[in-house]
Amino acid sequence: MILARLTLENLAMTYGHGDPVLHDLSLAVADGQLVSLLGPSGSGKTTTLRIIAGLLQQTSGTIKVDDDDISRVPVYKRGLSMVFQSYALFPHLTVFANVAYGLKRQRISKAETTQRVTAMLATTGLNDLAERYPQELSGGQQQRVALARALVVDPRLLLLDEPLSNLDAKLRVSMREEIRRLQLQLHTTTIFVTHDQEECFAISDKVAVLNQGKIEQYAAPEEIYHHPATEFVARFIGFENFLPVNGTVADHAYRVGDQTVRVNVATDGAAKVLTIRPNQIRLVPEGPEVLSGQVTIRTYLGSAYRYTVDSPLGALQIDGPTEAPVAVGAPLHFTLPAEHLLPLEA
Ligand code: ADP
């Protein structure tokens, strides 16, 4: 078992004469953890991963594995394995030979190679496919071979670049569980790049949310889900309502438009917006202290209806039960539960 700690210190990257695409990016990944880089397309995830791998040279900054500075070490001496979106299997080699490839390059003896490849094929459920060629495999099976090939060399780090994006929805779920199972079994420190929030929350110890080459938040999935640090993170993980704050009214209330909105946490002059998820707004009968608005759009989500509501607080997204649909044009009455309103500073 190889336990490795990854530290990125003040990484910056500029391609050619363009604008910087990474700014002062620092990240510490503990031994044996699976950390995801999550962000929209163009936020710098692949650039960061390729810099860690040594496929790209950063403009400045340091990469360390344990206490070794590998910032200028060539790719093949970094002791890392990478799995790409495309799998990049060798089409003319069998599954067995694909998995054996890295060990052969390291001049490991034939006996040890056979023993390690056989064990890895068993671990990844590929025993029966050892003599097949890549074109005789399904997408999910090819993905397994790519993982087996990456892991058989006992890498210090496993780098995964959107490894599931070519699989259908159902297979994505079972493969992500498979990746997590293998990662926990082998304790391989792993960096997983994805733009899919659900996918990365499901399998990560920690998530770094990237926006325009900067880390907006680095925390456990539960922390990010319940306490997004910024409006960008909140939007990315499903908060839809952002109410601009005009000022504080009392210890536990903000002014939004001409309304007073109560919160559970002590008011803070730095709060700029209040946010709440569509399914956290409570539909109630008309009454005092109850807000009302008119439904302008209704969409069916399967588990709920989502309403766009023209309200005294502006346009809101509100979820309601499928048993009692409200028509477009009809009024909707609701409250904003104080315990779900989250003040954000940026
Ligand atoms: P992500 O993986 O999050 O989609 P990337 O790391 O691929 O983001 O890209 C980050 C930024 O760097 C984008 O603005 C992209 O256009 C730019 N970029 C990526 N690769 C190159 C390249 N080879 N040359 C110039 N710009 C690039």
UniProtKB/TrEMBL annotation:
Signal peptide: none annotated. Keywords: ATP-binding, Nucleotide-binding, Translocase, Transport. Residues 6-237 form the ABC transporter domain. InterPro entries: AAA+_ATPase, ABC_SmlMolc_Importer, ABC_transporter-like_ATP-bd, ABC_transporter-like_CS, Mo/tungstate-bd_C_term_dom, P-loop_NTPase, Transp-assoc_OB_typ2. Its EC number is 7.6.2.9. One of its GO terms (molecular function) is ATP binding. GO terms for cellular component: ATP-binding cassette (ABC) transporter complex. This is ABC-type quaternary amine transporter. The lineage of its organism: Bacteria, Bacillati, Bacillota, Bacilli, Lactobacillales.
